[in-house]
Amino acid sequence: MELEALHLSGLVKLMPRQLRDDRGVFWETWRQGMLDGYTDYPLEFVQENLSVSKAGTLRGLHFQRDPHAQGKLVRCTAGRVFDVAVDVRASSPTRGQWFGCELSSENGCQLWIPAGFAHGFLALCDDAVVEYRCTAYYHPESEGSIRWDDPDINIDWHVPDFNLPEGRPLLSPKDAEAPTLKTTGWPFA
User: Fold this and answer.
1) Most buried of the four, 118, 141, 160, 189, by CB within 10 Å?
2) What string of H, E and C letters represents the secondary structure of 112-141?
3) Quick one: DSSP state of residue 97?
4) What are residue 83's DSSP bridge partners?
5) What's the half-sphere exposure (Cβ side, CA atoms, 13 Å) at 163?
């Protein structure tokens, strides 16, 4: 596994070594200690989530506040997504900045998103399957969200033309009504 520390403090892209033969492909997706040296603490995953989305669906930007903040190891096990993390830590030198990359079943890449980031993704095909391991349990009272098209963050989602009304992605009511970061305030110190 090749790991790349990204320009946003704590964010890491994991790129697997793929072993291919006439039967298919094999790669290691996780091993305890894999992110040692990239995190300030040993990782323990307590919950794993899975979503299946049709093309043009945008899920996010979501986070959980302390003391239930979640770190997430995100991967796409079927199809393709454009995955995004936004630094929402007030004291971070990269606060308000975002990183995005394609995760797919073909490239096998994963994104480590530590607590203190908002996360979202855009499904680039039908039946895009995203799995993510979390370092804390889901806690509804701690959840928060930020508007996907917040002009102060200015994420370039590369929204393809899915013949949707106004060329907008498919959103849940909650995501469509999410506040901007300016309205939310910095959710992490």
Assistant:
1) 118
2) EECCCEEEEEEECCCCEEEEEEECCCCCHH
3) -
4) 101, 121
5) 0
Q: Which two tokens stand for residue 159?
A: 């929204």
3-state secondary structure of 57: strand
Sign of CA dihedral 105, 110, 115, 121: negative
Residue with tokens 């096990």: 77
Residue with tokens 């239930």: 68
Maximum separation of any 2 CA atoms in the chain, in Å: 54
pTM here is 0.93
Note the pLDDT tens digit of each residue in 86-107: 999 999 999 999 999 999 999 9
Separation of alpha carbons 181 and 150, rounded Å: 7
**What span, in angstroms and rounded, lies between the C-alpha atoms of 114 and 68?**
12
Q: Point out the catalytic residue in the list 119, 132, 139, 158.
A: 132
For the question of residue 132 being annotated catalytic, the response is yes
Q: How big is the chain by its Cα radius of gyration, in Å? A: 16
- Catalytic hit among 62, 119, 137, 158: 62
Q: Which residues contact 177 (CB under 8 A, 6 or more apart)?
A: none
CATH no. for 2-184: 2.60.120.10
